[in-house]
């Protein structure tokens, strides 16, 4: 009887720790019905563990924090209460930030299965490590699990699944992660295109921030090791866990400096620069938990809080885009603080249906910052328009001042120009007067004729200056009036009945007009002197000036004797040839078959 009581007590104790399951048991948290043992040396073997006393665990999650040389042993007793054999999946759920299990050993009798980041299976299809269990009808089995993490947090939760339910839950979990990474990738591409368009460093640093965020999320969610099942890459990523966190802070800091324009706040920006130069050193010290491990997360939290303080300070100082930054970082800091509580303390967000709170906060924050950066373009455009208006006003003032100065200078030069023309005209008139006196006193006919020609030449120039003085508004003179004045002056020296016709279709520029005046003076003088006899009743002279496609054509024609009876090598014709070819750079043609026709052609570069 005494032995029977002992057996009943033993059976009761076994039943106390056993988890009763059947074929319908699924999505069942069993850690609170299991027992745990903490090996603070991480040296005990399974055989040694069997003799140790396991303690009951009242919670559905166990968190030891960062414990480098400590391993967590879990003892699970499952009992099949049905009359059928059952197959189950045991999921070692460690889908928390910084809690990816590095080395997980599963003992099923004499069978040992290795899982974790240090033992990635090529056939792995789930984010969390899983183990396949088989129990016979009414069979009880005891399983042991050893979790050791040197760099990450030692934390876990055990869930028992039916295979179909697990596949559904796993598909849903991966779908949410893909959606999160897809949204972040879209925002990354969008902001990168904005960077290429605007060349604004804020967009580049924000792309760097999103990329760091995506890499961290992909690694800690398990997606990176799931779809890149390389043990070498997994080992590197594991060692760089702390460094990735520091790089994320570095990207955030660079973005903060450019987005909030912290250069305006000298003291705050100096502190940010000190942190900026400190971060690469921290990244090196945290690689493979060399000198920093859990402290990296506390340091990152302090830096994050300082960045939030900078944002509030910028908002208080009137930086418009700071309101977006404050709101976005308030969201992310809530998620980050909850993550710290979840990672360090025995706290499970899923208890309150907040499984994807951190991911949602990151998406909202990234979306809000993207909107803020787009708003930054609007602000920049407004500032550019304001600057443009101010610059235009400034230039208008400068132009107005310069215009006044130029007007004054122009008026002064105009007065000097008129005075110069007036003096030249007076000097020419004085010379003409002297020539007239000389003509009256000279009795030699040939000398008188030469002096008269010289006087006419000077008067042709004098007429030009006279017209310049009368024409105050423009340098464009009436060519026909100028030539009429020259011809009238010539005709007064002869007693011949000669009619002069004018067909002036183009007004010449002043630099060409003076040469044409001298040429006309020589040719009309020759016509009066040699083309017509004094007894002849009537003579005709025509002067035609035309513009044919930028080529000026001037024709002087008379109906007199013709060129054969006139002097071919006279001084007047030599002067005409020099003026046409040397000054106008044109051509001279003389035709004397019926009367005389002199045609002059030259290109007018000003047309």
TrEMBL record:
Domain Histidine kinase per the UniProt entry, residue ranges: 419-606
Pfam families registered for this protein in UniProt: 7TMR-DISM_7TM, 7TMR-DISMED2, HATPase_c, HisKA_2
InterPro entries named among the record's database cross-references: 7TMR_DISM_rcpt_extracell_dom1 (IPR011623), 7TMR_DISM_rcpt_extracell_dom2 (IPR011622), HATPase_C_sf (IPR036890), HATPase_dom (IPR003594), His_kinase_dom (IPR005467), Sig_transdc_His_kin_sub2_dim/P (IPR011495)
Top-level EC class as recorded in UniProt: transferase
Molecular function via GO: ATP binding; protein histidine kinase activity
Top-rank lineage group of the source organism: Bacteria
SMART domains given in the database record: HATPase_c
Keywords associated with the record: ATP-binding, Kinase, Membrane, Nucleotide-binding, Phosphoprotein, Transferase, Transmembrane, Transmembrane helix
Coiled coil (UniProt feature): none
Catalysed reactions listed for this entry: ATP + protein L-histidine = ADP + protein N-phospho-L-histidine
Sequence intervals crossing the membrane: 175-197, 204-228, 240-260, 272-290, 296-316, 323-344, 356-374
EC number(s) stated in the UniProt entry for this protein: 2.7.13.3
PROSITE patterns: HIS_KIN
Record keyword Transmembrane present: yes
Protein name per the record: histidine kinase
Origin species: uncultured Sulfurovum sp
Source lineage: Bacteria, Pseudomonadati, Campylobacterota, Epsilonproteobacteria, Campylobacterales
